[in-house]
Amino acid sequence: MAGRKISLRRWVNEYNFSFRKFQNIKRLVRLKKQKGIKISVCIPTLNEEKTVGRIIHIIKSYLMQRYPLVDEILVIDSGSTDNTKKVAKKAGAKFYTADRYLPKYGKYYHKGENLWKALYLAKGDIIVYVDADIRNFHARFVYGLVGPVLEDDKIGYVKAYYKRPIIINEQYIPQGGGRTTWIVVKPMFNLFFPQLVGFIQPLSGEYAGRRKVLERVPFSTGYGVETGLLIDIYKKFGFGVMAQVDMLKREHRNQTITALARQSFAILQTFFKKISEHGYLKLKEEYRDKFSYITRTGKLRDIKTFHIEEIERPPMIEIPEYLNKFRIRN
Prior knowledge:
The protein has eleven helices and 14 strands. The chain has helices at 8-14, 25-35, 52-66, 84-91, 111-121, 140-151, 179-192, 211-214, 225-237, 257-277, 320-325, and strands at residues 16-18, 39-45, 72-77, 94-97, 126-129, 157-163, 166-168, 171-173, 207-210, 219-220, 242-249, 290-297, 300-307, 312-313. Strand 7 (166-168) and strand 8 (171-173) form a beta hairpin. It starts with 7 loop residues before the first helix and ends in a 5-residue tail after the last helix.
C-alpha cells in the first residue's frame, strides 16, 4: 500500500487520535464485517503469570463475546518457567512456544522474535500487538488501535501513546516513565528521521498493523523491534500510512537503570543498522555486541559484560513456509 506524502505538522493534527473516537464498538464490528476482515491479538510473553490472565479475560469477554471484534487471541511465549502457559490457556488464549515454529531459521528468545512468528501463526488481516505486563489494561488498548485501520483503508500501522507513571524509591511519579524514549530514541529520531519525532511513545508495546504492511518489513528479535518497525514502515510505505492513538495512561513493571542501559544498547544497534542501510552514514567497523560496565561489591570492583546482539529477521513475505500457508504468490 502506498503512503500519502504529508507534513509532520499536518500528521500530528490529522493522524493523532483519541481512543474515544472509536468507543462505538458496534460500529467497528459493522465495518469489520463489511470489509471481510479478521483481527488477531498477539501477546508476547516471558514469565507474565501475574498479569496476562486478566488481559486475556478482558479482551475475550468484551471484544469477542460481548462484541465480536476480535477473532482470536494468541500468546507467543519465549519459554516461560512460571505458570504463564496455564494461566493464558485457562483465560482462553491460544498458546504457542515460539521456538517450535519455523525452527530451521534458528531460535532466538526475545520479544521481537515472538512478534515476527506471530505473523506466521495468526490468521488475522489486522494484527494487534499488546504487551503482557500492563497492570491497568482496558479494552481501549485494542479497539483504539483497530479503529483507525478499520475506518481508513490507507492507514496501515497504528501505535498507542499514553502517560507513563513510574515508581522510584516507592514514590509514585505521574509522568516519569519512558526514560529510554527521551534519552535515546527521540534524540536519534531528531538527528536522522525527524518525521518520526511525531510519535509520542515510539517504544510503546501496543500497536496494530495490516498484515500486508507487517509481512513486508524485517523484525529485530530484541528490544530494537519497535524502533526498527517505525523506521522501515516509514521508509517503505511513507508517513501517510501511520497513525497514533492516545490511550490515557499505562501502568506496568518499571525497569532498573542497568536493564534500561542494556535496552538502550540494543536499540542503538538497530539505529546504526538502519542509518547505515538508508545511507545516512557508513560504519568503518562492525559495532560491538557486548555491553560492559563497572560494578562494585564491597571494596571490590568488577566488570560485568552482557552479550546483546540484535538479530534481524527478514520480511515474513520472504519465508517459503509463510507463502505456502497463506497461499501467496511472491
